């Protein structure tokens, strides 16, 4: 795709200076800046099922609840 832009002279000078410093053409510099300013749409990583076998009751007795767990909460809560 070809795109023609009317740039303010300050922006043109900036692009020319950056292109010279990077050793690339002004077109390449402009494309690089545009590409870097647009966030990429990365695909989320695929979640693979765990190969680890779960053992029922493995952690039995390691979690305890307080004696008043089923008691009503205070009004101030």
Cα Rg: 31 Å
Please bin the fraction of helical residues.
25-40%
Low-confidence stretches are: none
Instruction: Name the overall outline.
Output: elongated
| Average pLDDT for all residues | 85
- The assigned structural class equals mainly alpha
The termini sit apart by 63 Å
**H-E order:** HH
Number of helices: 2
Strand content: under 5%
Give the secondary structure arrangement, pairings included.
Blueprint: H1 9-22, H2 26-37
Helix pairs in contact: 1-2
Q: Could you provide a short overview of the structure?
A:
The protein has 77 residues and is mainly α. The chain is built from two helices and no strands. The longest helix is centred in the N-terminal third of the chain and has 14 residues.
Structure description:
This protein is an all-alpha fold. The chain has a domain of 32 residues. The chain has two helices and no strands. Helix 1 crosses helix 2. The longest helix has 14 residues. The chain is elongated and about 75 Å long. The N and C termini lie far apart (63 Å).
């Amino acid at each position: 795709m070809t795109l023609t832009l009317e740039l303010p002279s300050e922006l043109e000078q900036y692009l020319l200076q950056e292109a010279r410093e990077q050793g690339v053409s002004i077109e390449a510099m402009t494309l690089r800046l545009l590409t870097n300013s647009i966030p990429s749409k990365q695909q989320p990583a695929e979640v693979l099922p765990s190969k680890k076998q779960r053992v029922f009751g493995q952690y039995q007795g390691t979690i305890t609840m307080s004696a008043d767990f089923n008691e009503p909460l205070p009004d101030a809560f």
